[in-house]
User: Fold this.
Amino acid sequence: MQKKIRSLAVIGLGIAVIAFSCQPNVSIQTAQYAVNGQKLYQTHCQNCHGAKGEGLGALYPPLTDTVYQRENRHRLACIVKFGLNEPVSIHGETYDGPMPGVPQLSPIEIAYILTYITTRFGNSNDNFTQEEVKKGLASCK
Amino acid sequence: MAGYRTPYLPVCIVALLLSACTGRNNKKLPIIGEREAVERVVDGKTVVDTLYHQIPAFTFLNQDSTIITDKDFENKVYVANFFFTHCPSICPTMQRNLLKVYEKYKGNDKLAFLSHSIDFKYDSPSVLKSYATKLGVDNAQWQFVTGSKKDIYGISEKYLVYTKEDASAPGGYDHQGYLVLIDQQKRIRGAYDGTNEEQVAQLFTDLEILLQERP
Assistant:
C-alpha cells in the first residue's frame, strides 16, 4: 500500500513537471498571439488539420513537424494565404494536397495563426510578427 | 454534519446507474419521416398497417468502379452521408468523425457505411478510391459512390439531407453534414450533425441500441 502511494506520488510529480515544461518560455505577447490564433485556427484550419494539429490520415498533414516548420518558416504565410499544391514531406510521409488558401486573412491574423501552430503544435517560442508575415507574403510565388 | 452528508452521494450514484440501465433496456430509436396508414383485409378482418418512410432502391458506382445497389445493404444497419473530396468546409470534420465509427466497427458485417459524393463532375471512382485510401478505409464496409446529378441529389432528399450545387458555397456545393442512421428495413432511425461532438457521441450510443434491436 505504502509503496503504491509512493509510486503514485512519483507519477503525479512527473506529470506536473511534464505539464510545466510543455508550457514553454513564451513572452506575454507570444501567448496573446497564440490565444488569438487559436480562434482563427478553429475557424479556418481545424476541420482539416485537427484540434491537436494531428491531420487526418494521408489526406491532411499534421502540423507537428518542427523541422519542416523551421526550414519553411518564411513560406508559411504564403501557404496560409494562397494554399499549397505540391508534394510535401511531413514526418517522412508524403502529402500532395491541394490545400486551399484563405486569401481574406490580414497579415496580423496570419501572424496570430502561425504563432499558434508553431508554438502549440511545434516547439517554437517566438511569435510571428506582422512585419515577418508581410515580408513572407511579398515573396510568394 | 459531515456524517450526515456522505451517505447521500453513493445512494445517488447507485440510483443514477439503475435508472440509466433500465432506461437503456427499454430504449427504442424513433422511426423518422412521414408515415401512412394502409388498410388491408386478412381473413375477412380489416387490419391497419403503418407504412414508414423508406430509402428507395438505388444504383451507384463505387470507388472500385463496381455497381453498388440497395441490395448490398440488405439486412444491414448503415450510416449514410453526403460529401465531396475537395470540400474545404464541413466534410473533413464529418469524415474524421465517421472514421472513428468505422474504426470501432471494422469487420462487423452487420454495419456498413455509405458516402455519396455530390460532386458528380470531379469525383470519379478513381478520385474516390484515392480519397478512401488516404482517409484510411481499406475494406468494402465503407462505400464511396458517385452517380448522375439527378440520382445523387434525388436520393439525398430521401435521406432528408439538403444538397445543392451552389457557386457561392465553399467548394461549389452546399450541403448538410448529417450522418443518417438507416435500419435493416431501410428506415431512417436517426440523423446526427457530423461536425458536432455531442451528436456524434449520440450516434455511437444509438448505433449500439439499433444493432441490438431485433428486426
